[in-house]
Amino acid sequence: xxxxxxxxxxxxxxxxxxxxxxxxxxxxxxxxxxxxxxxxxxxxxxxxxxxxxxxxxxxxxxxxxxxxxxxxxxxxxxxxxxxxxxxxxxxxxxxxxxxxxxxxxxxxxxxxxxxxxxxxxxxxxxxxxxxxxxxxxxx
Length: 139
What we know:
Blueprint: H1 7-20, E1 28-36, E2 66-73, E3 76-84, H2 89-100, E4 117-119, H3 129-137
Parallel strand pairs: 1-4
Antiparallel strand pairs: 1-2, 2-3
């Protein structure tokens, strides 16, 4: 068992999943980013007979990188932003604040309504206390 595991908090969380959610996924807004360049599809691993090295050859391309960040629901995407280069913490913050929880065109609603739970992975650029404050301030 994990040293930080708390069985009581775990049971409370499981109860909240049963009691606080509709059950069809309409509460969730999932956010993720991806990027693409000319090398995205290049192989990084290969197989070879025992005792031999796999030879991986590819044309070296130093090209432009494009990144996309999208917010999606069970109905489809609600907001997206594409940039040249990679998303950093500030770009990600701006996207969430300006296009997902914007006060002018809000795509989210207060909990426990539809589109009220923002789901992110553990990417380093998501670790931003100002982002947490902005999302909570938007309701």
